[in-house]
């Protein structure tokens, strides 16, 4: 008598997952991305931005140029992240392929626009230091490159390569979430060390410090030279020597580094996953082979960014008649 599938198995099957391990991965990592995106839609309001941005950030992002850039970035990247999560839901690809395709084009458009806006505001994000601008550029570069290669491969019907590059795209996008966690950990560590400093100009300080008496007392040079850069110790906490400008310096010191570390962690993580799932890649390559063969292409199975086309590894299809179990022998 056949065993009745459990409730978990029924849910997994109804959503189209062929492998049981894919469902919890989708729930955990997709859920994090979905929650992060939904929780930040309220940043499209200036009142919320002014209240919740890191100390010192509102000085720059209240200005029309950077405010518009930030709003464009958020208005595009947040729905982009939500669409990306559901693009990995198998039931949509199998039962509503046209929806999957349309969402894919929308995803790419939103990603490209949001990335352009992110690059435009990087000069003022968390102090706009060189390492911050470089980290934003690096994250933008790997995200746009991987998404472009995913598009190229699906147009060439190279489905396993499309899967790999879309996985990379989503994982790279998620690096900005991990960067927040790394910022908290590194901020506490740097504050404990107590020997890290960041520069802030007097205009930024005056916008952060609402007590004019303390501002004039602690930063007398700003009165005579408003454009002066002042070194501020990076610290966080509730001590007598810790003020809001010290917290602002914490973010300036840690943001660029945190993004770089997050990119590295996510880069390694997605490559490990792809190498742990070669069977799925091979299955999808056979699907690519069959679809390209139907189109009459010269080298079916190698239409996109494959190793045998661009490298020295040769590939040949594993046909049904070559496998006794599949051929019924």
From TrEMBL:
The keyword DNA-binding does not apply. The keyword Membrane applies. The chain crosses the membrane at residues 21-43, 72-92, 104-122, 134-154, 175-199, 257-276. Pfam families: DUF2306 (PF10067). It comes from the Eukaryota. Keywords: Membrane, Transmembrane, Transmembrane helix. This is DUF2306 domain-containing protein.
């Amino acid at each position: 008598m056949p065993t009745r599938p459990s409730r978990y198995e029924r849910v997994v099957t109804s959503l189209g997952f062929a492998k049981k391990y894919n469902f919890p991965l989708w729930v955990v990592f997709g859920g994090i991305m979905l929650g992060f995106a939904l929780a930040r839609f309220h940043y499209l309001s200036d009142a919320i931005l002014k209240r919740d941005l890191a100390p010192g950030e509102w000085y720059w992002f209240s200005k029309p140029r950077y405010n518009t850039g930030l709003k464009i970035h958020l208005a595009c990247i947040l729905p982009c992240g939500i669409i990306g999560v559901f693009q990995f839901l198998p039931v949509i690809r199998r039962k509503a392929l046209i929806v999957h395709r349309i969402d894919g084009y929308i995803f790419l458009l939103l990603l490209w626009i949001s990335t352009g806006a992110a690059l435009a505001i990087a000069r003022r994000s968390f102090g706009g230091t060189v390492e911050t601008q470089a980290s934003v550029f690096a994250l933008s570069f790997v995200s746009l490159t991987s998404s472009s290669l995913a598009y190229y491969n699906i147009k060439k019907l190279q489905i396993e390569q499309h899967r790999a590059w879309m996985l990379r795209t989503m994982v790279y996008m998620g690096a900005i979430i991990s960067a927040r966690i790394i910022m908290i950990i590194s901020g506490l560590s740097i504050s404990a060390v107590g020997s890290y400093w960041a520069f802030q100009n007097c205009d930024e300080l005056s916008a952060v410090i609402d007590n004019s008496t303390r501002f004039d007392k602690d930063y007398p040079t700003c009165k005579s030279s408003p454009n002066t850069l002042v070194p501020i110790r990076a610290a966080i906490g509730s001590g007598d020597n810790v003020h809001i400008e010290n917290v602002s310096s914490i973010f300036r010191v840690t943001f660029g580094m945190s993004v770089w570390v997050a990119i590295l962690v996510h880069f390694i993580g997605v490559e490990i996953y792809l190498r742990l799932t070669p069977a799925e890649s091979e299955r999808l390559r056979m699907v690519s082979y069959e679809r390209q063969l139907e189109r009459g292409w010269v080298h079916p199975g190698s239409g996109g960014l494959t190793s045998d086309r661009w490298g020295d590894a040769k590939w040949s299809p594993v046909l049904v008649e070559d496998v006794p179990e599949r051929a019924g022998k």
